[in-house]
Amino acid sequence: MSANPSPRRQAAQRLTTRITRGLAVGALGLTGLTAVAAAHDTAAHDSASHTTNATKTATSTSSSTATSGDSLTSPTSTPTASSSSSNSSSSSVVSGGS
Amino acid sequence: MTLWYLTRATGVVALVLLTITLALGVANVKRFHTSRIPRFVVNGVHRNASLLAVTFLFLHVLTAITDGYVPLHVADVFVPFISAYRPFWVGLGALAVDLLTAVMVTSLLRKHLSRRLWRATHWLAYVSWPVALAHSIGTGTDAGSTWMWLLIGACILVVAAAVASRLAPSPSPPSDGQRQAGRLAGDVLPVGRGVRSHPVVPRAEVQPSLESAV
What we know:
The structure holds two protein chains of two kinds. Chain A is mostly helical. Helix content of chain A is 54%, strand content 6%. Chain A folds into two domains: 1-60; 63-98, no CATH class. Chain A has one helix at 7-59, and strands at 66-68, 93-95. A two-stranded parallel sheet of chain A has the order 1-2. Chain B folds into two domains: 2-167; 176-213, no CATH class. Chain B contains nine helices and no strands. Chain B has helices spanning 2-29, 39-67, 74-78, 87-108, 115-122, 124-139, 146-167, 176-185, 203-213. Chain B is globular and about 55 Å long. At the A-B interface, helix 1 of A face helix 1 and helix 2 of B.
């Protein structure tokens, strides 16, 4: 590569830089938008699952099986997704969708 | 919680950037250029987009490991199908990471490798994209969202168009008569590898083939 690239090549390099900068800014913007959408979806899912859980708790009698079907959208209260059956026979954690 | 959102967001963006990189790679192979966008720019943006994709992939992996909600270890990121959590779908992600790492490393060491080896490894990029897509659909928390499906649909359309363009036969090189006629007329025709130059022949010999070409 020569020390002094031609004006045409310099212009091409500037264009490459501009497009790359646009891509980077766009990627960061999309990251922000996606994160916000994810948070929004999680909040909506949480409120829906809280309602469902409350109904289930009111109607359930003995079983203590916890099914975290879509719980990865709200990773606040569930244990890790690995299955663990530590104590009683009726207690189990079923990991499911994310 | 923020890390978890970042994991999801950077995964989506990495897929989009990978799609752009693949499309630009095909455009580069097909020698796409316009009067405003020379091939040098297409090649440069392809390279920079791939570096951006790898950066976001790294952030995706880093945030997934450090978040800690899903039991992921460093080995799970590089060794496919050993993860305790969703071994198949996370394993596809690990496979995509491995393939992209191979493509990236061989591209960075391109000057020290034979062109044949570099090309063979670069073909892995075509394999890594559907693997990454399957990972994002199978594991992705947002795969049930409408906006995610729209994004995935757009990515599939872009790659399908790029691959169709890649598989389409290139326009046939100009015939000997056209080349010679162009030279006689003072045109500048691209002469690449595999295109032999021919001695200039008198106009009388060129004329018949030129007429048949028209």
